[in-house]
Amino acid sequence: MVKDAETLALIPGGAAAAVLSEDFHHLGDGDVVRLEPAKAGIRTLFRKAVAYNHFLLTERCNNYCLMCSQPPRAVDDGWIVDEVLEVLRLMDRSATEIGFTGGEPTLLGARFIELVQAAGSHLPNTALHILSNGRSFATGTLARDLGAVRHPDLMLGIPVYADLAHVHDHVVQADGAFDETIRGILALKAQGVRVEIRVVLQEQTVPRLIPLARFLARNLLFVDHVALMGLELTGFARANLERIWIDPVDYQAELTEAVGILDRAGMKVSIYNSQHCILEPSLRRFSRRSISDWKQEYMPECEGCAAQGECGGFFSSAKFRYSRGISPILKAS
Amino acid sequence: MAKFRERAEFDASTRSDYTMLPWRFTPLDDESYVATNMAGEYVTMSAGEVSDFAGGALRPDQPVYDELKSRHFLIDDDTQVAIDLLGLKIRTKLAPLANFTGLHIFVTTLRCEHSCPYCQVSRANDDKREFDMSEETALRSLDLAFRSPSPAIKIEFQGGESTLNMPIIRFIVAEALRRKETARRNLAFVIATNLAVLDDEILQFARQHDILISTSLDGPADLHNRNRPRPGKNSYEKAVEGIARARTALGHYNVGALMTTTAASLPQVRSIIDEYIRMDFGGIFLRPLSPYGFAIKTKSYASYDQKKWLEFFFEGLDYIIDLNLGGFEFIEHYSAMVLKKMLTPLQTSYVDLMSPAGIGIGAVVYNYDGVVYASDESRMLAEMGDTTFALGNVHDDDFADIFMGDALLEPLEQSFSASVPGCSWCAFEPWCGAEPVFHHATQGDFVGKKPLSSFCTRNIALFRGLISRMEANPEVRRIFERWANIV
Ligand code: SF4
Ligand code: SF4
After folding, report:
1. How far apart are CA A146 and CA A128, in angstroms?
2. Which among B180, B197, B198, B199 is positioned nearest to B189, based on CA atoms?
């Protein structure tokens, strides 16, 4: 595939080639695309220039989270697996990190293991980050199979929303989910699989944030990372905005204490999706620029802010609602 | 879009009774109680809450309900995973037991040029080599040390003044390193020394093999010199100079110091702490008076000294807390070890705070003459004529005789504090230890009557003191959380 007619002229006659329209000029060498002649379209599957490419493995899920950014659908989408398997084979070996998301990827069962295996075989130097609710690992079999893959650099991101079962179950809208998730985490760690705990900061989770931090430090000290994350206002999160919204300036005390508890316990802790100006200064060193470039924006208030370089900025979806505390950090005079 | 269900629909606690998991309680102060679970987590409660909870009448809308549920004092229909987690935490606390014995103390000689009055073991300024460990004894002791299942073996040289027998230290280090090649253990060495005779050659040797130095520093010059008489009356000057030289040779953090509290120390805890700060140590271990010697001869171990010691300890602790509140980081090591048991899922390897007791399995002593003792205190006891805790002799007995013989197993069996009278219903049991040597020495049996035990009264006061301080001030709790994770 080439970007202009001039280059096309250089290609030997008879070779299969096509000229891309202007819309696709962001594509570069090493990217993987799928041509869909039936729809006369092209889908981008992997971009080499992007630090973190993620693959949605299924839209199905056994949770139904109040703030889900990718609302689940009960569809038969098994074909996705075949496509991802193909992409994995074509991808550039130098990719630093890729992600598997959903829906709930583990609902694919044996095919899920097959995908992790393929990622490890074709891309041995590429970190694999998988978002899962962890429930499928509770019985131990899937955790054992995943451990047996011995992927060289694997991390599972699993949400735990509260220390109290019913609060977690309410957030994910599934009875018994908390117990299964915790058992899943224990099973994964017993198999030597690395686990990151993800906590979304919202109206339902902030009141138990400090007890949750104590709970993690006491019961799950052996997990590999804890990420405390601001809301991304897409999907259900937007539909449920009034129900889940809490302004980050109103939870700084809880966040400071929770980060402190985890940090003092020697756990690795990060704050994702947060803006520098609303974070307590002592928390800024925990904040990561986690929003993917193509989703990241700044607001009119950010004009002249000296912290844009370190600040995570906003999801483009934040235009629906963002903190009243946004104000530029001016250079120390 | 399917309808979202409200939180109350997920909350089964309102519709079900709760089941209590094992817990114990005790008064904390005039108003409140402290309740603990088997893994050593605690919740403070009012008397009313204690009786509600115990009577099965606690309501889910009482705030303490969530705290008890979160910390696994109770389960209800919302969750069953609590039992798995509680079991995991208890296993984590007990796991280090399987690795018995990590610390192996070699008494290289009894000779010493100091003559400290509280020291039970050293022979002052004795030139006779009959108190030195022989190569034969060293080899047999190493055989035992390397039979230990522990993946990490620490060899500590003590005396007398351990460095007065450098040839045997060099011999043991070389031999241990040779065995490490095939034994695949993590090996660490410590030389305990008063630094008075430390020369550059010893330091160079220590540096070459990453050997840590542990020394004694009792406080300011007059106190230290009074506690530790030596010819020249300059023990303090020797120590301070030695610490500086050792730090230069080995690195600042590879030199540690311990203090011993004597009667003369009691009125001056602040200046003792100041001395440690002046010497640029990161903390201090306010060690209680040892009951061996004068205290023991009077059979009824008087509570008078005990009370004074606690005043000394808490005055020091509060001083250190104030320093931290002011932004100066400094820790008290005994508190830190207790706090580790209170605030983390982990365990401390400090022998006095282990249950079953740390004797023999937390540390073991190979005396210069080949007699194996269950602890340092056991050796002191033997010097006073009581050989109850002599486990055997490296020349006559094998690993099984020594580590599985009655001399060790009997006191160990009686030192599971969870099952002995007094401790089994004590709320502080998850944090406490058992001290069979102490109780044998002071009361004549391994268990002892706890109300008469100064070990017990001291620890109870300490546990209460630590909890009330962190409950009263969240900033103190944060400081304590830091300490709990340093040691
Ligand atoms: S003003 Fe904008 S760029 Fe600056 S810290 Fe706040 S959100 Fe970030
Ligand atoms: S020794 Fe005393 S404080 Fe310790 S567990 Fe026994 S009764 Fe409790």
Report:
1. 13
2. B180
Q: Which two tokens stand for residue B260?
A: 């011993």
Q: What is the ipTM of this complex?
A: 0.91
Give residue-wise pLDDT tens across range B239-296.
999 999 999 999 999 999 999 888 889 999 999 999 999 999 999 999 887 666 544 5
* In contact, B417 and B162? CB cutoff 8 Å: no
Per CB-CB distance under 8 Å, the chain A contacts of B3 are none
A245 vs A297: CA distance, rounded Å: 20
Whether the CB-CB separation of A298 and A313 falls below 8 Å is answered with yes
Closest-approaching ligand to the CA atom of A303:
1
d(CA B169, CA B133): 10
Q: Which amino acid is at A193?
A: V
What are the φ and ψ backbone dihedral angles of B235, each rounded to 5 degrees?
Answer: -55, -45
Minimum-distance ligand 2 atom for the alpha carbon of B355: 5
Cis amide leading into B160 (omega within 30): yes
Q: H or E element: which one contains B391?
A: strand B390-393
Q: How far is CA A25 from CA A29, A31, A40, A293, in A?
A: 11, 12, 17, 17
Distance CA B468, CA B29 (A): 8
Radius of gyration in angstroms for the set of CA atoms belonging to chain B, rounded to a whole number: 24
B478 and A264 in contact by Cβ < 8 A? yes
Residue spans of the domains in chain B: they are 19-94
- Calpha distance A113→A103 (Å, rounded): 16
Residues A97, A111: Cα–Cα separation, whole Å: 21
Least confident stretch, B307-316, B330-339, B437-446, B471-480: B437-446
| Residues of chain B neighbouring A179 (CB-CB closer than 8 A) | 79-81
pLDDT in tens, A11-23: 777 777 777 777 7
Residue whose entry in the numeric block shows the structure tokens 């937390």: B362
Q: Report how far ligand 1's centroid is from the alpha carbon of A312 (Å).
A: 8
Q: Residue B21 — pLDDT band, cuts 50, 70, 90?
A: very high
Ligand 2: list residues with CB < 6 Å. Answer: B 417, 422-423, 426, 428-429, 432, 450, 456, 459-460
CA B161 – CA B196 distance, rounded (Å): 9
Q: Taking residues A201-218, what's their average pLDDT?
A: 98
Cβ contacts (< 8 Å) between B4 and chain A: which residues? 64, 66, 173, 240, 243
pLDDT(B428) > 80: yes
